[in-house]
Amino acid sequence: MPANKKLLILPGDGIGPEVMREVRRIIDWMDRRRSVTFEITEGLVGGAALDATGSPCPDQTVAAAAAADAVLFGSVGGPKWDKLPFDKRPELGILRLRKDLGLFANLRPAVVLDALIDASALRPELVRGLDIMIVRETTGGIYFGEPRGIHVNEQGKRVGIDTEIYSEDEIARVARVAFDLARKRRNKVTSVEKANVMQSGRLWRAVVGEVGAAEYPDVELEHMYADNCAMQLASRPKQFDVVLGGNLFGDVLSDLAAALTGSLGMLPSATIGALQSDGRRNALYEPIHGSAPDIAGKGIANPSAQILSFAMLLRLSFGMDEDAALIEQAVEKVLGGGLRTADIMAPGMARVGTTV
Ligand code: ATP
Ligand code: MG
């Protein structure tokens, strides 16, 4: 008997708990279908944790996350907590988890399902069959480099400072994540930076090239300036397989790629940590949408992104590729059958039901 997989579920706030309930129904179905493979713990995070414990990310949650094989996260935040001081914000819940678990690589697939093409924001010929994976470095780069801050210079004028710092180890480890993913996909990595104007970009290009040549000679590697990549994503998106970028460029490009799919309620994501000596790595999976307080509690939220985040977890953390594919196909089948939540309804389409 293989050891049970330890899964920590953190529903959070807003629509988090209601879309997570749909995942629990899938897990129940999987449990009934065969011997139990999950050991599930549910924990508190975000506003829900603040209300119960005074902290948006209690130590108990961090400890449970570190002990788990994977974390399934909902979403945090809402108007109820908006007026709190910065160090009490529900959003700190996810930030602390990322930091304490060392989650340095954010994976965001941008996939357009055929069934959804009618609801897509862009021309169908552009995005039909789109399947891109954006890999973004999340713990380094310009969001964290020192010095940073707003100072007053000798002329009495304010000066804003951010510093982009990347070490070769930081670049190499996230590059390996991108190359490993490419091997399971279409075998191509596009690495983006601004090596023409930034020193950290020059190093980024050099290190990704070295890792590729030494460890992944079978994977096609292409270097692209980030601005050009933005233009190419908007005009010829299907040339891309895995796109690799630092914290800032990865942030911008992953939102651009998400916009191509035209469906916030459909997109999952993963944030993963270093490969440990026992072959495990910390990983947290969450939908890219937020807590959507405007629709929370109404039973109209699209649970697909949360469900697809669970499928991504099964594939990447538990190696359960078949189960992941089954869930993805089920989502596509439901949409193909015409069942839609409001966020993915094409103009003029009849409302069939409120929940998928
Ligand atoms: P964040 O919390 O990441 O800052 P945000 O506040 O910018 O996110 P969301 O909470 O994702 O944004 O909501 C943006 C809009 O999209 C809202 O109008 C919300 O109702 C809608 N939305 C988000 N997720 C879903 C979903 N799963 N189903 C339907 N509508 C959604
Ligand atoms: Mg929000």
Topology at a glance:
Elements: E1 5-12, H1 16-33, E2 38-42, H2 47-53, H3 59-67, E3 70-75, H4 92-100, E4 105-111, H5 124-127, E5 131-137, E6 145-152, E7 158-163, H6 168-183, E8 188-193, H7 199-215, E9 220-225, H8 226-235, E10 242-245, H9 247-261, E11 268-272, E12 283-287, H10 304-316, H11 321-336
EC number: 1.1.1.85
Family: Belongs to the isocitrate and isopropylmalate dehydrogenases family. LeuB type 1 subfamily.
Keywords: Amino-acid biosynthesis, Branched-chain amino acid biosynthesis, Cytoplasm, Leucine biosynthesis, Magnesium, Manganese, Metal-binding, NAD, Oxidoreductase
Structure report:
The strands form two sheets. The chain has a ten-stranded mixed β-sheet, with helices on both faces. The protein has a two-stranded antiparallel sheet with strand order 6-7. The two termini are 35 Å apart. The protein is built from eleven helices and twelve strands. Helix 6 (168-183) packs across helix 7. The protein is α/β, with parallel strands linked by helices and 356 residues long. It binds adenosine-5'-triphosphate and magnesium ion. Magnesium ion (MG) is lined by residues 77, 290-291.
Q: What structural keywords apply?
A:
two-stranded antiparallel sheet; binds magnesium ion; 3-isopropylmalate dehydrogenase; alpha/beta; binds adenosine-5'-triphosphate; single chain; 356 residues
